Every structure is written in C-alpha cells, then in structure tokens.
Protein: N-acetyl-gamma-glutamyl-phosphate reductase
Organism: Neobacillus rhizosphaerae
Amino acid sequence: MKAALIGGTGYGSIELVRFINQHPYLEVGTVVSNSQAGVGFSEIYPHLSNIVDQPLETFNADRLAEENEIVFLATPSGVSSRLVPPLLDRGIKCIDLSGDFRLRSADEYESWYKHSPADEKYLKQATYGLSEIYPEKIKTSSLIANPGCYSTASILGLLPILKTNLAEYESIVIDAKSGVSGSGRGLSLTNHFAEINENLKAYKLGAHQHIPEIEQILSDESGGPIKISFTTHLVPMNRGIMCSIYVKLKETVTTNEVHQIYSEFYKINPFIRIRPEGNVPSTKEVLGSNYCDIGLHVDQRTNRLTIISVIDNLVKGAAGQAIQNVNLQNGWDERTGLIDIPLYP
Amino acid sequence: MKAALIGGTGYGSIELVRFINQHPYLEVGTVVSNSQAGVGFSEIYPHLSNIVDQPLETFNADRLAEENEIVFLATPSGVSSRLVPPLLDRGIKCIDLSGDFRLRSADEYESWYKHSPADEKYLKQATYGLSEIYPEKIKTSSLIANPGCYSTASILGLLPILKTNLAEYESIVIDAKSGVSGSGRGLSLTNHFAEINENLKAYKLGAHQHIPEIEQILSDESGGPIKISFTTHLVPMNRGIMCSIYVKLKETVTTNEVHQIYSEFYKINPFIRIRPEGNVPSTKEVLGSNYCDIGLHVDQRTNRLTIISVIDNLVKGAAGQAIQNVNLQNGWDERTGLIDIPLYP
Amino acid sequence: MKAALIGGTGYGSIELVRFINQHPYLEVGTVVSNSQAGVGFSEIYPHLSNIVDQPLETFNADRLAEENEIVFLATPSGVSSRLVPPLLDRGIKCIDLSGDFRLRSADEYESWYKHSPADEKYLKQATYGLSEIYPEKIKTSSLIANPGCYSTASILGLLPILKTNLAEYESIVIDAKSGVSGSGRGLSLTNHFAEINENLKAYKLGAHQHIPEIEQILSDESGGPIKISFTTHLVPMNRGIMCSIYVKLKETVTTNEVHQIYSEFYKINPFIRIRPEGNVPSTKEVLGSNYCDIGLHVDQRTNRLTIISVIDNLVKGAAGQAIQNVNLQNGWDERTGLIDIPLYP
Amino acid sequence: MKAALIGGTGYGSIELVRFINQHPYLEVGTVVSNSQAGVGFSEIYPHLSNIVDQPLETFNADRLAEENEIVFLATPSGVSSRLVPPLLDRGIKCIDLSGDFRLRSADEYESWYKHSPADEKYLKQATYGLSEIYPEKIKTSSLIANPGCYSTASILGLLPILKTNLAEYESIVIDAKSGVSGSGRGLSLTNHFAEINENLKAYKLGAHQHIPEIEQILSDESGGPIKISFTTHLVPMNRGIMCSIYVKLKETVTTNEVHQIYSEFYKINPFIRIRPEGNVPSTKEVLGSNYCDIGLHVDQRTNRLTIISVIDNLVKGAAGQAIQNVNLQNGWDERTGLIDIPLYP
C-alpha cells in the first residue's frame, strides 16, 4: 500500500519514512514539499542516502489520489485544513499529524491557533486518533486527527484515574517537558544550539495549543468539564516528552491500588507499560519506540497522586501513533512495523 | 581573612574557591580532604593549575582554628554534624553547606536523612542562611546552615505570595528540575554520562530531603502549617535549577498585581530579579551567577499562579549564597566578590 | 537459531538484543551475567520491560552449548580469552566483541592490553570479522574476532587508498573522536556526566589498544609495514565515531578521482556509503544503523587526502557488525535484521 | 575609560560586556547595533537585566569618538573594513575581532573571505593581536586585528616547536574542534539544536578562512613558507576549542625535552599553562577563562609530536584576548579584569 507524505521535509515526516520502511504492508509513495520540489530527498537528509533518494514533488491532489492509497500530512497548523478536503473528496484516506482537525469547535481552534479553522463539514468527519482510547472509531474513519505529542502523554497518563471517582477534577496540574525536536526544523532563536543547550526554558505559560485538545478529551471521557493548568518546558535533548501530572485524591488510596487501576485499564494495550511501584520511567527508556511508559506515586502526606508519563514525541507523539492508527484502520496487528526496542543508551 | 574548606574536592568546594579568589577580603586557607590528603589541589582539578596548587590536608580542629577565621563545610550529610561542634568550640565561624543544621527538629532530620542528627545544643545555634529573608539573624550567628539548592529556589519563589492572603496553602505543587552537578562528584549509574545524557528522569518522588526544610520555612513565614507536593527531575545539563511552582489563588488577581507584590517584596535585594510580565527566566540566564530570577503568570482560566524560579544550583544554591552570608556576617556589601555577570551562552 | 549473550549487562549486549529482536532467524537465548545472575534483564534495563524480561544466568559452558547455537561475547578484555575455548570445544560458534582474539601476536596483545593473551591454539582459529574485507573467511570460521569500533572506521576509511600506489605510508594520521558510550557502562570519573558534558577530552595519546589492530590489517592489506599516529577523543554525546584521516599523496589527484577509487572499491557493499564530492558525513547520519559513511577531500595546497569516516560505535563498531558476520556465516543476506534507517534527528 | 561595542548583539560582544564589567579601568560605553537600535540591551539578553539595560544605538562615528576612548568591533567579516577607517581618522583606538585586518595581503583576504578587502592604507596600520607573541607592537598600535579563535589555539600550540629546528614544516596537520558558539548567533540549519546535538560534524575541509592567517604567522615566525592541513569540526557543546596538532620530528626527542622547550618559551606568560608530561588538557578546564592550556606527547613509534591546545573560543579566542590587548596597550597588568578561574564543572 503506497503512502504519500505531505510536509516531507519535517522531522515527523522522516520518522514516518523510517517506520514505513520497516513496515511489511506499506511503501513510501509520493513525497510532497512545495518549497523544495525537484530536490532529492537524500540531498536534504543525507542519512537517507541509498534508501530513499526520490525527488520531492509539488502538491497535486489528482496525482496523489491516483498513485497512493493513503496520505500522511505532517504540515504546520493551518495547512492541512486546506489540503485534506480535496484529498478526502478523491476518496483517499488522510492521517493528519497537525492540530487542524483535533478540536470539534471551530471557534476554539481559531482562538488557540490564530488561524482560520477547517470547514465544519470536514471537521465532523475527523476522528481523534488516540489509538488506545478510540480503536473502534479509528477503524471506520477516513480522516484521522493524530493527537498532539503533549496531549498523548497527558491523556494516557490521566484517563485511568479520571475514570474512577477518586480524582478532584479542578486540581489537575500538568508540568510538561519536551526535547527540542518537538518544535520542528524551522529556524528560530529558541532552537539555536547555543541558546538552548545547557539551558532549561519554560514557554507558552497557560497558552499552549494542546490545552483545549487535552481538555476536550478529558471532559468527554470523565463527564465533567475539566480545566487543567498546563506548563511546557524545553529540555536540552533531541527527543522525549515527560508529563509530570499532579492530581488531588478524594479518598485515601495506596500507590498499589492506583497501580492496579492503571494495569487493568491498559491490560490489552501492548504499547502502554505501567511501571511497578517504586519505578519511574525516564524518557530515554522509550526513545525511538512507540511505547508510553507510566509511573505512579501517591504522596500520603498530601494525598496527591503523581503520574509520570513518558513518550518519544516523534513516535508515540507523532509518526508511530500515525502508523498504529493505519494498522487499526486496516485490521492489521497494531504493532506492525512498530516493534523497535527503544534505542538505549 | 583566611577561609578553610572542608570537603575540598566536591563541586561546592571548587565554586567556593572561584568566589574566594575574586573576593577582596577573603583568601583560600586550609583545604581539607581526608581521602586525598597530600595530593595537590590542581592535580585533582587541573583547571586550578597555577591558581590553587596547595596540597589537601586532613581534618585537624586545632590547626584549622589557628590558621583560619572561617570554615566552609561542603561535606555529604551526616559529616558536618560531627565536625562543626569542635570548630564552634574553638571560636571559629562555620558555614555549613550540607543539610545537617537546617532542620530544627532532630527527629525530622533522622526520618528524612536516615542519619543521626546533630547535637541539639549546636542545632539551636544554627541560623538558616537564606540571605534575603534572614539577614539580621545571619549577621549575629556563628553557625550558618546554608539552604539547599531546591529550597532556595522554591522558598524565594513562594514567600511573596504566601505573605499575602491570596494563596490556598494546601494547593502548592513544586515541580523541580536540576542539572546533574547537583548530585555531586560521587560516581553512580544515575550520573553516568550515557545514562543521563539525552534523558530526563524524575527521582525521589515525594521523598526528597529538601521537603521538610522548605515546609519548615514556609510554615514559619506564613503562619499556617504548609505541606507541599514536591517532585525532582534530573535534566541533561551541568548546572541550573528551575522550580515551576503552582498555587491556587483565593481571589481573582492579575499577573500585573502579582508582579507588583513580588517587586515590592524584593525591592532591596540585588540578587533577586523579578521578570516583567510575559517574560520567563531560563536557567542559563543566571549561569555562574548568584541571581535568582523569577517569572510570574496567573492563568485566568484556572485561577492558578505559576511561578518560575531559577538559580544556578552551585552558586545561589550553594557557594554563592555562602559567600553572600559571610558578607552579611561581616558587614560587607552583600555583593562583594559576587558581581559576575551570568556566563552566556 | 538461539543466540546466547555473555556480558549481558553492557551496552554492546543490549544493542545485540535490539538487533536479534528484529532478526527473522535469530532469537535471544541464554543471557549471562555472573555479577547479576538471577535478576531480571528488564530490572536492569527498564526499556526492555515486556520485551526481554528473562533472568540473567551464570556462565555454564555445557548449558550454553546445549541451549544455544551461537554465542556473542561482549565482555571486557581478558575475559573471553578464557571463556571462548570451552565453548569452541563444545562445538558452538563464537562471536567475540572484545579485543582478545583480534591480534595474531600474543606478545603484542600482552604489551598493549596488559593482560595474558589467549591460547595460541585458539588465536589461530580466529578470523578478523571486518565484514566487507573478509567475507569469505568469515563464512567458514567458528570464531569471529569482531573488530574494534575505532578500527572499523579507520580501516574502512583507509583501505581503498592504500590499495593504490598513491599513499605515502609513513604519513598517516588518524584523529579519532568517539561518543561516550564507547567506554561502556562501568563507572569512572571520566564518564561522570558533569565531567564530560560540555567538555572535549583527548585521551590515551599514542597508546590506544586499537592501534596494533589497525596496523595489523593495514599492513596485511597494503603489503608494507604501516605505522600510524592515532589519537582518540571523547565527545559529549552518547554514540558515534568519526575518524578524520590524513594521508599524503605521492601524485596529484583530484577529489573526484579518489571518489571513483572508493566507489569502485565498495560497489558491492550495502553498508558503505561513499558521499559525493563536497559532502561530508556527520555521525548522526548513521545513528543506530550499520552504515559506514565516508567523505573525501583532496587538499590541492598540501596534496594531502582527508578522509572522514563515520559509524555508530555500538552498531557497525560492535553489535551490528557482529550480526552482519553471523549473516555471512549462515549464508543469509548480510542485511538481514539490519535494515534500520538511521534515527534522525 | 569608556569602551564602545559595535556588533553589540553577538556572543563576542556580550563576553566583552562581562569582562568590561569586572575590569577596574574600563566601562561599557556606546553599544551599537544597527538592526536593533532603540531596544534595551537586556531585552535582547535577559541575563543582563539590572546590569546593562541601556538602549542599543546606531553607528555614528562622530558620536562614538566623542563619547568613547576605545571601540571593540565584533562584527561579521566585511563590516569593520568599512567602519574602522572613520573611527581611526577620529583618533579613537580600534580592536577588531573580525578577520578584516588580519591578513597583510588584500588579495589573499579576497580569495578566502569572498569580500572586498580593507583599504591598504588601514591594513598597514593593523597589528596582529596575539598577545603573547606581539606584546611590543600591540603597545603602540591603534588598530589591533584580534586573532581568530582557531588561529590562537593553533599558533600558540605550534610556535615553540617551530622555533627550534626539530619540526618538518610540510608535515603539519591541525585537526581542530570547536563548540557551536563559535559560529555565532545567526540562524542556520547547522546551528539548529536538533541537528547538531548528539552529532559531530566536519566542515569547510581545507577551506576555513583561518588557514591563511595561521600560515602567515607561522611563516613569519619560522622563516620558511608553511602550509598546513587544517580541518574544522563542530562539537555538540557551547564553548571550547581543541586543536590536535601533529608534527613530524626531524630528530628523536623525548616528551620531556619538548615539555622544557614549551615551558621555557612561555615562562613569562600568565595565561599559557603547559601541562606536565602525561597530562592533557580538556576544553572545560579553561571554560570562561583566558587560559590557553597545552599538552604534549611524542610518539616514539612514529617520531611525531602531538600537541593538544585548548582555549575558550569566546575568551582567549575573542573577547578575553581583546581585553588582554587593551591592557597591553595601556600599560596595565595584562591580567587586569581577566582573573576568572575557569567555571567547573
């Protein structure tokens, strides 16, 4: 099955290439980059030499639909809202890695993203592609809104406790930390090596565009309207997200009881690993892989649950989950092409 | 004035050397390291070649008291509780950079540190050396318990809001991140380069020994008994601490109003810089210097205040604050020897 | 085919696990670690949770031979010289990743490694496992001495030019740089994070134990006795080796002509990528993969050829090449299990 | 004495601010940045808050000459060749940190820098500001061409051996490695964090613009025309240069004899530290300081001398040496304002 990539020169896109290359049923099809059309892919990314050397192409919906069965869009926000409609109209399945189809409310999109939203007609067709939570909807959907990286780690870390009656909804604090690849390949002073190396930076306090996405899903799943305090930090490393999540508990429970709740919740999910009591995951332990590892600790002194949820932002937070969703759509084992052991050290 | 160093081969100690070297009234005296006595200081630390080449010595209270006017103890916990008494008895002033004299309660020390506590007689003589908060006590004290690195950033970040009636005491969450030098020069797998580089690690969930110290001071200053949720993380960089602090507010206030509270609170303190609204400090912006920079943001959606407090863990979190305290003790300008501009980039 | 691992807790060993896991014909068999026998593999390496959880075992030649068809030894030098003989005697194939069987001369081993050498009888059975150069010998050998990491990058970079009459033999300078994982997981001050992070260190000037190995192969292949100047450096990153190699040329040739010599030399080797003129490889462009990428430049001003040869020290420099050799031994496509695209960024 | 800074927003400039701030006889005067005139210095560099908050200004030769006694130019190449003449004509001393006045030959400048050279009249007035080698000329010069960072480390490392009859001139290979701050604050993909972190990159093979500068000085000082092989590498760290230098010896000498030659050569130079035999400097051991540390090793097997020369590229390689030159010009102790102990770790 040929898979096209749009936004071919970003980091999300080259991770897709890595997984498609080792996937038994997928093959790299058209690679679109309007800004660098005609240039060979491996001229831009020499690590792909002798592997994917094909030239980049311009966007052409007809040709894309003709030559590919599926399209991955790894474009900046505000782009796929315009590119997805002509593709869906031509009957091709779309996996959108941007935020353009994640929020049900067009108004909310506009207020957080500062772009015009996608057309309501297409917004309604989108399924939020959090693989572990919505596998059935994903199977039958032609438009997958692949979740944000912070959102994936946050929601997977919070849902099991929210589904009980134990959590105080208004107490949720998410302190999120990310490696720098999360902000892409576009040049900016923030991503300039000498500025962020040996540095730790908080950014977008209370203003990150993943906030409404997290609140939408948490509210859907828990019943109550949920508002979170959410702060993002840039850590001087390439990959990895850690969300340290704090939730006040209504009753006294032990770490062990919470551990059971989580283990039960994710018992059929091969990519979620709940760490045993006393063991907390670090980001490197999922590097390059599609795992989300979760550690749990109840602080008896304050009756607050601390959840440490880690993913590789480019894999479970982007390309890996996109492949997992394609596997679900096609009825393949969801692990297909994703069996990599984390790269350690 | 000759200043002795005990625990001479740790990172805290070589920062003391750096500041003493540029201090007009202090001079490096005896340097004690029982494990490496006889070896030249610059053989262990070649960056000190031609600057401080003198041999390390063994601990001898009489000789120390004879040849020095002040002693800095930069030893692991459980050591200075035994070394300080003979020094105090000989009339020499002590600045202890370890945790041995920070907690008033010997029981609490034992339960968090898992060592025998210091003798009550000496515990009572200790002054908690948070320079901005206790300058008067410091001036007249012969035993300064220099604050912990996390404690310094946390307490300085929290006190101004706690001194108002705006904060909900039971809502405090401190998500603390540190560079790796904070865990010293002792070898461990956690500090092995390939294990922590390109990695982010949470550790000691709810169990860090700085918790009782922070709660002691916050409770003293606010009136109410305060318990905090406190989580520590290791960031792949050498220096720097960031405490991201979350406090629920009882009333609706603006970031600007909080900014005024903080600016007023610290208006006479040269090493505290309150950042203007919309500007958040990063750890590199205080690297190598004695500054504590604080950024503030009120999230109107959740009525929670986020405080970002950064220091260099080895400077304001250790050696720099120790020098600042000696300056206060001696009636010198508190900036003496500490005027370094942060090293950037 | 079951493959045992000896020295199971080192970095070389977990890379072997990663490749065996994605290899269609190999399976992880016994994992030996005398020091940690009985402990679960994933307790030591949590990134292996739910993947390889089996307990570590003690060394037992009979049981190893019974339950496995092949043994990888990833032990410190001086260990496999003692463990390999009983295994070979029991008819099991051995791939030794240490230096114990690389040098033909027992004396030279002793003088560079400061250990007793292996028994001559077994030394003679060893084949130097540089896959691209000795594929035929590897096919028929039961004991592969897998090349050193620096040696692999150096020899692959030098051989094509040495096989011509263009190089001045006595002019060879190899300036080698490695990521820190190359020095293993054993604790030492050199590998302590705060010491090597933001630092660049030269070490073992003219004394690295890979020197005799490189000279042995270069001399074998070129005819003349070759002595090299070889300096190693530690770079603050986890993985990657770059050898910058300088060779004086006897005649005037262009970069383009040298490029043709190299391309021709390696035309059948899928893991060697000769970069086009003007393009020089960086270490990240082979990260996690079995590639050796080579860039070439003739400096017309000095008539000296500069060769930039890069590998991942744990892959082509250790575990990956070991798997490649097993593929050759068994008549499988040499790329089997090794098709990973480099992890970028 | 007021010192103006031109090119005020680069890294060289903020290092100048750091040293001027701790210099007893210098004071920050006008800070020029045409692109950001009117903006406060500490808005661009928040680490300067409360220290240097003054607004940036546009270039105006009259005003500069009126209000300052000295001007530091830390501008990209091709700029100071135009700015220096009007300043010199107004009688103000200039320290140029760019390459515009380093090469005597205007033709050579044009061929390596691809810019128009400075006017010959002003070129002739320039003194090459390598403090240890040309102190007398520096004292009487109004225009100092401050050496390049690579050049400083290379020339200081090579001169003592070249001044003997021991070195084979045509054998010199310099393998140079630099932290990323060396390429400045301008945005480029090469300096994008995720591209260079965990990566090692060779660049400008045989084409770096410091080559003619090094050759000019080495040839001047040794008598013979000298051509070097020179390769530069980017190391994933902020600061530090290491030049690993290889020289074939004409006679057999010991490391100890070479050590004596170097110690003698630099015996009156406080910033040059020749390491004892067996001890090799690493870049962190000079971090933030004006030292150049040199390690030496004669490889008896190849009769080649290896010299490891390290500096902080922004200090001895730029701002620190500039201050040292101003000290020399004014007859002050050359260490004035430069006594910082390296920042370790």
